[in-house]
Amino acid sequence: MRVLTLCLGIGIILTAACGSGGGGTPAKNANGRDPLTGECTTSTATQTCTGGEAYATCIETTCDNQLKAAFGSGYASGSYSGPCAAFMTCQMACPCDSTKTTCENNCSTTAMNDANCLTAFMAVGFCTLGAACTQPVCTPTTGG
């Protein structure tokens, strides 16, 4: 299941981006998640991240058609529709703390149980894998 989340994070999934997003992507939500990728790629008390904004912009530019098919035409502004709207809404609600993996796995189950979402999500994953985008680097800080 983590592979599914990572496909998005490769970011789409993705992940996202530190600071506000690029290419029309809004700033992170209150949980520190990137609306484009759904990933925790923001520097927090438990991690320091670099390169997220450039990654999100690259993925948005490269995989826009696939992202729209999976998450709806408003995905870049954090307004999800389409076959994977439930997944993204769930992902964005997950905290960016020690409980995030459990929450993300629950969201992945939602996506995997919907054949239309799974198909669209896999297209996003394949696009992000083929994209020449440099993924953000997040490293744990002391106490994380």
Short account of what is shown:
By secondary structure, the chain is mainly α.
Describe this structure in words.
- The chain is mainly alpha-helical.
- It has helices at residues 2-9, 52-62, 64-71, 85-93, 100-112, 115-130, and strands at residues 47-50, 137-140.
- The chain has a two-stranded antiparallel sheet with strand order 1-2.
- The two termini are 23 Å apart.
- Mean pLDDT is 75; it is low at 1-25.
> What is the 3D shape?
globular
Overall mean pLDDT: 75
List low-pLDDT spans: 1-25
**Order of strands across the widest beta sheet?**
1-2
Our Rg estimate from Cα atoms comes to 13 Å
Tally of helical segments: 6
Order of helix and strand elements from N to C terminus: HEHHHHHE
Helix content: 40-55%
Which structural traits does this protein have?
about 45% helix; globular; about 5% strand; about 140 residues; mainly alpha; two-stranded antiparallel sheet; disordered N terminus
